[in-house]
């Protein structure tokens, strides 16, 4: 479906035209009409499917059309991390380029006092859209900054990630300040029981849009090395010697490991940088700018960049450590093969992580290719389920030098036969400006 079939206003369509956005992704096609019709919604879709536009476009369109007061906070978008909040804010600037009467402010931690004052001013003056991380927003609420009694939209982006990071109480506390008429929109990459419970608590008769069970994109070539911990630096060195690797993200399991790997890469004269929670916001911004602009070839990072960071040209993702669970694996490797490109993901699996990696393979529904260790590194551990970690025994395989060895459900949505902006249901709009 084309965007100009979705009853978005002309200013939004002009911005999309400038950005050369013509055809909706499946999540956008299914969600935008429901949000325009005032329905609470929970959207479940894999990362990189266009969820940000799926909620921003209809919300901005409705605000610009004058359905909501111009002196109130009309929309609150919650983000689990500063990086995702910044990215949503950037998307807001692009989609809202022609919206002269729609204002926004991003609210997230790690900034200096001047930034906090700018956030405070935006909240007190009633910016139309607030994009915030939970902790920082709670700080403003505690100080009485901003009137939330007339908020019309409450959006939870990457809701599963927010719950994983312990923000449940903060979300519920913010929700208590919102009016009963507020339209709540929740997006998540997964649908575990805790997300279902949160949806039951916050959403009213929601529409559920579920495109697929989270799986890596088909275009990602997924491989693994079965190795000892002390063999990992040698594998990395061999990978970079054999290929001129650029646009690489290496994920490590802790910030200490990130620092260690980054130092090792620099000793190999690899153009790299590190991203983790010890960096200030200014340092994070600079690291991301250098990487996105191509000044840095390799980014070594914790899971802080595993979700929601939109970089389309990553050629390879390397898991220096096996992720804790299958969902983390999906989000890490989902950094590559975006925007219909090909990609590659390599995981370094040490003995104690074999059980966890086999669980990931079981989740994926197939065994991934195991690559032979580079010459001179010796033999790796035997790939035996249950010997080093959890899982069911499945025989014995030794990868000391031998190479071993869904698409999204895209149901076409029924075209809406009739749509009247005046029938938008949420909130009391009788005394608000009508569409010009």
Helix/strand layout:
Elements: H1 10-18, H2 26-36, E1 41-44, H3 51-64, E2 75-78, H4 82-95, E3 104-107, H5 113-125, E4 129-132, H6 134-142, E5 153-156, H7 159-164, H8 168-175, E6 183-188, H9 193-202, E7 207-210, E8 220-226, H10 232-242, E9 248-251, H11 255-267, E10 272-275, H12 281-292, E11 298-301, E12 316-319, H13 326-333, E13 343-349, H14 354-364, E14 369-370, E15 382-383, E16 397-398
Parallel strand pairs: 1-6, 1-7, 2-4, 2-5, 3-4, 5-6, 8-13, 8-14, 9-11, 9-12, 10-11, 12-13
Antiparallel strand pairs: 15-16
Helix pairs in contact: 2-3, 3-4, 6-8
Write a brief caption for the model.
The chain has 436 residues and is α/β, with parallel strands linked by helices. The chain is built from 14 helices and 16 strands.
Structural description of this entry:
The chain has 436 residues and is of the alpha/beta class. Helices cover 34% and strands 15% of the residues. The protein is built from 14 helices and 16 strands. The strands form 3 sheets. A 7-stranded parallel beta sheet has the order 3-4-2-5-6-1-7, with helices on both faces. A 7-stranded parallel beta sheet has the order 10-11-9-12-13-8-14, with helices on both faces. A two-stranded antiparallel ribbon has the order 15-16. Helix 2 packs parallel to helix 3.
């Amino acid at each position: 479906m084309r965007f100009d079939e979705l009853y978005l206003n002309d200013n939004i369509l002009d911005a999309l035209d400038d950005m050369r956005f013509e055809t909706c992704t499946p999540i956008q096609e299914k969600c935008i009409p429901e949000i325009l019709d005032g329905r609470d919604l929970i959207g479940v879709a894999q990362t990189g499917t266009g969820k940000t536009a799926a909620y921003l476009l209809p919300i901005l369109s409705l605000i610009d059309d004058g359905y909501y007061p111009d002196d109130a906070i009309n929309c609150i978008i919650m983000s689990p991390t500063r990086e995702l909040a910044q990215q949503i804010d950037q998307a807001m600037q692009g989609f809202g380029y022609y919206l002269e009467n729609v204002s926004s402010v991003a609210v997230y931690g790690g900034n200096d006092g001047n930034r906090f004052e700018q956030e405070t001013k935006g909240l007190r003056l009633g910016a139309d859209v607030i994009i915030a991380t939970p902790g920082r927003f709670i700080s403003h609420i505690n100080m009485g900054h901003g009137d939330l009694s007339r908020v019309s939209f409450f959006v939870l982006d990457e809701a599963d990630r927010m719950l994983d990071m312990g923000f449940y109480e903060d979300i519920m506390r913010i929700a208590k300040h919102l009016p009963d008429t507020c339209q709540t929109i929740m997006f998540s990459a997964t649908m575990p029981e805790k997300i279902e419970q949160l949806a039951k608590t916050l959403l009213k008769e929601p529409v559920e849009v579920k495109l697929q069970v989270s799986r890596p994109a088909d275009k990602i070539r997924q491989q693994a090395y079965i190795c000892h911990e002390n063999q990992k630096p040698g594998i990395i060195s061999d990978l970079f010697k054999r290929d001129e690797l650029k646009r690489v993200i290496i994920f490590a399991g802790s910030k200490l490991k990130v620092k260690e790997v980054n130092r090792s890469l620099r000793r190999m004269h690899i153009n790299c940088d590190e991203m983790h929670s010890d960096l200030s916001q200014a340092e994070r911004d600079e690291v991301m700018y250098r990487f996105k602009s191509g000044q840095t070839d390799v980014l070594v990072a914790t899971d802080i960049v595993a979700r929601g960071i939109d970089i389309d040209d990553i050629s390879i993702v390397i898991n220096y450590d096996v992720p804790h669970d299958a969902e983390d694996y999906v989000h890490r490797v989902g950094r590559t093969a975006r925007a219909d490109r090909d990609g590659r993901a390599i995981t370094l699996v040490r003995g104690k992580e074999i059980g966890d990696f086999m669980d990931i393979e079981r989740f994926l529904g197939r065994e991934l290719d195991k690559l032979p260790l580079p010459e001179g590194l010796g033999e790796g551990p035997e790939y035996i389920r249950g010997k080093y970690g959890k899982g069911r025994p499945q025989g014995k395989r030794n990868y000391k030098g031998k190479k071993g060895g869904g698409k999204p459900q895209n149901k076409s949505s029924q075209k809406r036969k009739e749509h009247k902006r005046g029938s938008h249901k949420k909130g009391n709009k009788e005394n608000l400006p009508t569409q010009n």
